[in-house]
Design brief:
The protein is built from 6 helices and 5 strands; from the N terminus they run H-H-E-H-E-E-H-E-E-H-H. It has 184 residues and is of the alpha+beta class. It is elongated. The structure holds iron/sulfur cluster (2 copies).
Length: 184
Amino acid sequence: MQSLTQRAKPVDRSPMTWLEKIYLWNIFKGMLITFRHFFKKRATIQYPEQKRPFSPVFRGLHILNRDEQGRENCTACGLCAVACPAEAITMEAAERLPGEEHLYREEKYAARYEINMLRCIFCGLCEEACPKDAIYLSETFAPANYSRKSFIYGKPDLLIPDPVKHPEEYAKAKGELDKKKSKP
Ligand code: SF4
Ligand code: SF4
């Protein structure tokens, strides 16, 4: 049969020698390969104690942003949901009531905002479509879980910590966003 490439090697079917029959030589060769790896740079790291630096284009879990007064930026315009190629985003809009100005920056807000992380392909189009600086993809992973339901992230999972009530957590999350935004 004609070979399509020149890479095929014919199998050696000659009878085994005495040395080959006792396999010691092959075991020794195998051990030598293992031994050589002791002196090579390790390809693995001790995760989660050690972490690899993220690529500048890494896109992880979403964050719903607040302004510096702790008000939610999202105005439930739905542009992110329309832009999402995986149809992973669902939301319900609500009107801001008098007295809720300290909670929501705009007159309309997302009473319910959900992202199905099993559908999401982390393309970042929702972030690009948002006119209100309200959604970002952070540098965090979606943690592993056993149930499908736990991969539907609601507002409590997505909202950045309140800068007024939890300044430290907010600064940490915001620092991560600012770092990401400053990348090319
Ligand atoms: S990152 Fe892409 S797939 Fe995921 S929610 Fe945003 S637009 Fe949809
Ligand atoms: S996250 Fe942005 S694009 Fe999506 S509904 Fe809110 S304001 Fe609109």
